[in-house]
Amino acid sequence: MANSNTGIIIGVVITVVVVAGVVIYVATRPKTPPKTKPAPTPIAPPTPAQAAASFPIQYGATGDLVKALQQGLNQYQGVSIAVDGLFGAATNAAVSTAGFTVPVSLADFDEITAPDYTEVTDPTTGLVSDVKPNATA
After folding, report:
1. Do 24 and 58 sit in the same domain of this protein?
2. Same domain flag for 7 and 66
3. What is the CATH number of the domain that holds 66?
4. Residue 23 belongs to what domain range?
5. Are residues 105 and 62 in the same domain?
6. Contacting residues for 88 by C-beta, under 8 A, at least 6 apart
């Protein structure tokens, strides 16, 4: 009978030691910082000459305009695609998901990449400028 009690006591001691070891490990392990997503790198908007020569943007296109389109889709249109500068299947699907058509016109490009701006024409000069809502021209 003494032998069976000894086995139980040894089992309890081992369990206590293991549990204590786990508690000590969890309490003292190094904390890993949460992963943060880097802010997107701003891509310069096209110059008027680039814009005139580059639109509409269609499947198979490459370059900075496509990167700006992809970044706008991610930032403003609620999709998540790679910003790789290649207008492939993922970009094509993202444009459609955001409610736009392919090929992407200059007007749609502007709406995708800067939807919080409104085009306003100054009645005295006829100049067109982009302003944020509730701003005055």
Report:
1. no
2. no
3. 1.10.101.10
4. 1-31
5. yes
6. 59, 60
In tens, the pLDDT along 84-131 reads: 999 999 999 999 999 999 999 888 888 888 766 556 666 777 666 655
- Three-state SS at 41: coil
Q: Which residues contact 27 (CB under 8 A, 6 or more apart)?
A: none
Distance CA 98, CA 38 (A): 23
Q: Do 11 and 61 share a structural domain? A: no
**For the packed helices 64-76 and 106-113, what is the interaxial angle rounded to 10 degrees?**
50
Does residue 136 form part of some domain? no
Question: What phi and psi values does residue 97 have, to the nearest 5 degrees?
Answer: -60, -35
pTM: 0.52
- Preceding amide of 103 cis, omega within 30: yes
* Residues 122, 55 share a domain: yes
Give me the helix-helix angle, 89-97 and 64-76, nearest 10°.
40
Give residue-wise pLDDT tens across range 39-67. Answer: 766 666 666 666 667 789 999 999 888 99
Domain tally, the chain: 2
